Amino acid sequence: MPAFHEEASVAAVVHEVLEKLPGVGVLVVDDGSTDATTAVARAAGARVATLPFNLGVGGAMRLGFKYALANGYTTVVQVDSDGQHDPSGVPALLAQLDSHDVVLGARFAGEGDYTTRGPRAWAMKVLASILSRTAHTKLTDTTSGFKASGPRAVALFAEHYPAEYLGDTIEALVIAARAGLSITQVPVAMRPRSAGVPSQNFVRSAIYLARAGVALVFAYIRPKSAYRVTGAVTATGAQV
Question: Is the distance from CB of 125 to CB of 141 less than 8 angstroms?
Answer without folding.
Answer: no
